[in-house]
Specification:
2 strands; mainly alpha; MetI-like fold; two-stranded antiparallel sheet; 299 residues
């Protein structure tokens, strides 16, 4: 009995550092943000209680939120989330078929864009899509005779969002990609051999009936990371175009809107309301991921 009690206490001892950090820097901050969302707080004077005014204004008077931030965030998440997730799985599966050394080199190359923030990497893309003839893409199109004059890629609202999607997919090979690669490599190869003996005929059936069911935890982790990453994206359109906000609010995301109110207008109460809405959206999408890839134990 004492042995079990000691093991129980030791387990809590090991968990305590992480639990303390999580509670202080996540749970407490979420709680404070939730409380501030019902106040007017300008970072100087003491917060004054306003009830649901911030939320009412958010959905009835904030045109930038309704017309740009919310729809842009949803579109960006629906494209980059599933697109980057599917791309991560496909690349992880392809790399798993390669020899160890080549796989390691390619995995580092694919993962490297995720190590650098999208805002920093956008500097390179800004040169590529520059609106004068010194921009690489414009230069090539002019040289090949496809266009007669330079295209203002970074000033056209219809093109800016497409560039954001392109850059977002390129930088989406993050921890989810590594988790999927690890999951595929750790599947017992004898399962595949037994399945082929039982009548499995091709690689597609191998992926559907063995690979995906055998790595559900990694698939779930990748899905959650994709949700968190896409909904928390910010600053990309402004970094690419060099203007804040970007032309006609193209690519203006929810986190951009929240940062604008928090650090430019100093309306922390309203920004907190935006953060609560963002949190609820992330929780909703994460729950959907659990339904798709979670096990009964996880539910």
């Amino acid at each position: 009995m004492n042995n079990k009690k000691n093991k129980f206490n030791t387990a809590y001892l090991f968990v305590f550092p992480y639990a303390a950090i999580f509670i202080i820097f996540v749970v407490v901050l979420i709680f404070i943000s939730f409380i501030l969302s019902f106040t007017y707080f300008d970072t100087v004077n003491f917060p004054s209680f306003t009830g649901f005014k911030n939320y009412i204004n958010l959905f009835t008077q904030d045109n930038d939120f309704i017309q740009y931030a919310l729809p842009n965030t949803i579109k960006y998440a629906l494209i980059i989330g599933p697109g980057g997730y599917l791309l991560s799985f496909i690349l992880a599966w392809i790399l798993a078929q390669l020899p160890h050394r080549l796989r390691t080199v390619l995995a580092i190359i694919i993962y490297s864009p995720a190590l650098t923030s999208g805002v920093l990497m956008s500097v390179g893309w800004k040169v590529l899509f520059s609106g004068d003839n010194r921009g690489y893409l414009n230069y090539l199109l002019l040289e090949w005779g496809f266009i007669n004059k330079s295209i203002q890629f970074l000033q056209n609202p219809d093109i800016i969002f497409g560039i954001m999607i392109f850059v977002g997919l390129w930088t989406s090979m993050g921890l989810g990609f590594l988790a999927m690669l690890s999951g595929i490599l750790n599947i017992d190869r004898t399962i595949y051999e037994a399945a082929y003996i039982d009548g499995m005929r091709n690689r597609f059936q191998e992926i559907i009936y063995i690979t995906i069911p055998s790595m559900k935890p990694q698939m779930l982790f990748g899905a959650v990371m994709a949700v968190v990453g896409t909904f928390n994206a910010s600053g990309l359109a402004s970094a690419i175009t060099g203007s804040y906000p970007p032309p006609q609010y193209a690519g203006w995301l929810l986190v951009d809107h929240m940062n604008d109110y928090a650090f430019t207008r100093l309306e922390m109460g309203y920004a907190s309301a935006l953060s609560v809405v963002l949190l609820l959206m992330c929780l909703l999408m994460s729950r959907l991921c659990y339904r798709l890839f979670g096990t009964k134990e996880a539910d």
